[in-house]
Amino acid sequence: MRLPTFARDCFPSGHTGTTLLVFVYAWRFSPRFFRVMVLPGLGLIAATLVGRFHYATDLLCSVPLVMVVVGLAVGWSRTIARRDTVARPVTMDAIVRP
Fold first, then answer.
1. Cis peptide bond N-terminal to 98, omega within 30
2. Are 33 and 26 in contact (CB under 8 A)?
3. Which residues of the chain have a pLDDT value below 70?
């Protein structure tokens, strides 16, 4: 660990970005899963910094990348939702309600 055979840095931190992306979607769709994943996820982010695999700027610069990815995903899903209109047959049950 002290003398790695490689001398390249990774910018921005993919581990941090992926973990933050999981946090965003877990917070939105499964708060229970978010509560379970928050400590291991923060531990993974801290481990990349403590283990000297990334600089603090690598971790900070993954935040705007995650924001862009989430924004693109929201825009894409809205576009697909508008495009996929499903034609449903009208039944008498839908017209006449007691």
1. no
2. yes
3. 1-9, 84-98
Residue with tokens 């769709």: 29
Q: Give the model confidence (pLDDT) of 26-51 as tens digits.
A: 999 999 999 999 999 999 989 888 88
Q: Which two tokens stand for residue 73?
A: 């995903």
Nearest to 62 by CA among 1, 3, 14: 14
**Burial class of 20 by CB neighbour count within 10 A (0 to 12, 13 to 18, 19+):** buried
3-class secondary structure, 65: helix
Query: Residue 13: which residues within 8 A CB-CB, separation 6 or more?
Result: 45, 48, 54, 58, 59, 61, 62
Q: How many CB atoms lie within 10 A of CB 69?
A: 15
Burial class (CB in 10 A: 0-12, 13-18, 19+), 58: buried
Q: CB count, 10 Å around CB of 45?
A: 20
